[in-house]
From TrEMBL:
Residues 187-285 form the HTH araC/xylS-type domain. SUPFAM superfamilies: Homeodomain-like, RmlC-like cupins. This is AraC-type DNA-binding protein. It comes from the Bacteria. It comes from Maribacter dokdonensis.
Length: 289
C-alpha cells in the first residue's frame, strides 16, 4: 500500500466529473482530495477504509465522502485481480460543494444540503431503499452531458439530503492529520493485517515490520488509527465474517473459524460489539432488506 495522496480529479471548467470504473482493482492508494465524492460499487468486494472506519463492501455499496477525508477500497484477492482474473466495477462522482456558487449554498433553501455536506466530513454510507434508488440515479448521471448532468446531480443531492437511511462512518472526533511518512508505515501494517488476519497476529511481528518495540508500536497505532490495534484486527475479521454470512451463505460456525477466531463465544461477542447484532440477527436483517 502506498502513501496518502492528494489529487484533484475534476477537469478545469467542469462543474463535476462522473465516470464508470472498470479495473482489476479499485484505486489501491490511500488518498484524499478537496472534492466531495459519491462512490457506487457495481462489482467486487473487499474492505473499505474511510477515516478511522473499517468495514467490508460488496456490490451495491454507496458512500458519500467529504473533502480531505482519507479513503481506500482494498479489493479481495488483489493479486488475482491485478492479473485480470477478476475485475472491479463502480461509478465515481466528484464535485466541489460550491459548484453552483457560494451564494446558493448559503441560502435558506440550501439548509438541508449544507447539513448533508457537513455529515459527509465523516463519510456516509446509504442503505436499504435509498441505496437502490441512488444506484439508478448515479447510473443515469454517467450517461448525461451538459446541464442535464448538473440537474441530475442536484436531484441526487436533494435526494440524499432528505433520507434517513444512512450511517455515518468515521468517528465524530476524527481529523485528518496524515503525513507521508506516517501513511507509508501505517499501510504496511494494514497490508500485513489484510494478508494475515485469518491466523493469530503477534505484536512482535508488527513491531519488527515498523522498526519499533511492541509497546511503541501499540502507542503509535492507537495515535494514528484512533483505535487500539486489537480493535482494528477485530473489525477486519468481523467485516470478513459478514461477507461470508451473506455472500457465501455460510453458517455462523463456518464464518467464525474462517475469519480467524478460535472460539464461537469470542466471535459472537466481537460480532455483536462491532455490528450491534448477533450473527444470526445480522443475516436475517440483510435477507429482509
Amino acid at each position: 500500500m502506498k502513501s496518502a495522496l492528494q489529487k484533484s480529479p475534476i477537469p478545469k471548467h467542469h462543474a463535476y466529473l462522473a465516470r464508470m470504473l472498470k479495473e482489476p482493482v479499485f484505486d489501491p492508494h490511500w488518498h484524499f482530495h478537496s472534492e466531495h465524492q459519491l462512490f457506487l460499487v457495481l462489482k467486487g468486494s473487499g474492505t473499505r477504509f474511510i477515516g478511522d472506519s473499517v468495514k467490508s463492501y460488496i456490490a451495491g455499496d454507496i458512500t458519500f465522502i467529504g473533502p480531505d477525508l482519507p479513503h481506500l477500497w482494498r479489493s479481495e484477492n488483489e493479486e488475482e485481480q491485478e492479473m485480470n482474473i477478476a475485475w472491479s466495477e463502480g461509478i465515481v462522482i466528484y464535485f466541489h460543494k460550491d459548484f453552483l456558487g457560494k451564494n446558493l449554498l448559503q441560502s435558506n433553501e440550501a439548509i438541508r444540503l449544507r447539513n448533508v455536506f457537513h455529515k459527509s466530513l465523516r463519510g456516509i454510507e446509504f442503505t436499504h431503499k435509498t441505496a437502490a434508488t441512488l444506484k439508478t440515479m448515479m447510473i443515469d448521471l454517467v450517461a448525461m452531458t451538459g446541464f442535464d448532468g448538473v440537474l441530475q446531480l442536484l436531484k441526487i443531492l436533494n435526494f440524499i439530503s432528505t433520507t434517513n437511511e444512512f450511517n455515518l462512518l468515521a468517528s465524530a472526533g476524527y481529523t485528518n492529520t496524515l503525513r507521508e511518512a506516517d501513511t507509508e508505515r501505517m499501510f504496511k501494517v494494514y497490508a500485513f493485517v489484510m494478508k494475515n488476519f485469518k491466523q493469530k497476529i503477534f505484536l512482535t511481528d508488527l513491531a519488527k515490520l515498523t522498526n519499533m518495540t511492541p509497546t511503541s508500536f501499540s502507542r503509535y497505532f492507537k495515535q494514528h488509527a484512533n483505535k487500539p490495534f486489537s480493535d482494528f484486527v477485530s473489525e477486519i475479521r468481523i467485516g470478513h465474517a459478514c461477507k461470508l454470512l451473506i455472500e457465501k451463505k455460510m453458517n455462523v460456525s463456518q464464518a467464525c473459524y474462517q475469519s480467524g477466531y478460535q472460539t464461537l463465544s469470542n466471535f459472537n461477542k466481537q460480532f455483536k460489539h462491532i455490528t450491534k447484532l448477533t450473527p444470526l440477527a445480522y443475516k436475517k436483517k440483510y435477507e429482509i432488506h
